[in-house]
Amino acid sequence: MSIPLMNKRSMVVLVDDWASAPDAIRAAEELLDMRRRDGGAGRPGDELLGVWCRPGAAGPQPATLRNEPDPAAGLSIRASLALCGQWSLCWLDGPLFDGVACSNDRRTRLLDFLVEGMGSASASFAPVYEEHEAESSVRASLHAMQHRHPAFVRDTIYVDHHDDGLRVGEVG
Fold it and tell me: What is the pLDDT of residues 62-86, one digit of tens each?
């Protein structure tokens, strides 16, 4: 199966609980590495924006995050890969990201969308940053998201080391 190409393929990992997040992230990273080696969809165009955790998030998707394009919805799942309801890796598409060149702005728009449509008292978001992003930019982005959605944004971040997978990051 080949993931259709887009200019910038933004992704999110959906998990049901944070205890399963490390395994989900590891499996998603292995899958992306395999796809890159096989010449399928993968970097440099892909960017993993974050991990969204909410009970039921990895199962069938709510109407908020549709599998078919819907310009009115703002965002849809272009493609997804999942493991038995434990986690889902979703490639996203839609006008929500149109003309948005900055990863921090796409990450914030994704968070706004998830909080508005899938937020609950038990939901939370851990942003993922690229390894080359400046620490000051990461810190400013994280603090802005925490200010905007204090109940949803975790202190934990992940850093995407393209050659070495995702790792828990530190923000000074």
Answer: 545 555 555 566 787 887 777 777 7
Close Cβ partners of 124 (under 8 Å, ≥ 6 residues apart): 18, 52, 53, 54, 152, 153, 154
CA-based angle 36:38:45, to the nearest 5?
30
Residues contacting 89, CB < 8 A, separation 6+: 11, 12, 13, 14, 28, 31, 32, 80, 81, 82
CA distances from 68 to 8, 97, 123, 157 (A): 18, 16, 24, 30
Nearest-angstrom CA–CA distance, 110 and 145? 11
pTM of this structure = 0.82
Closest CA to 79 of 5, 158, 25: 5
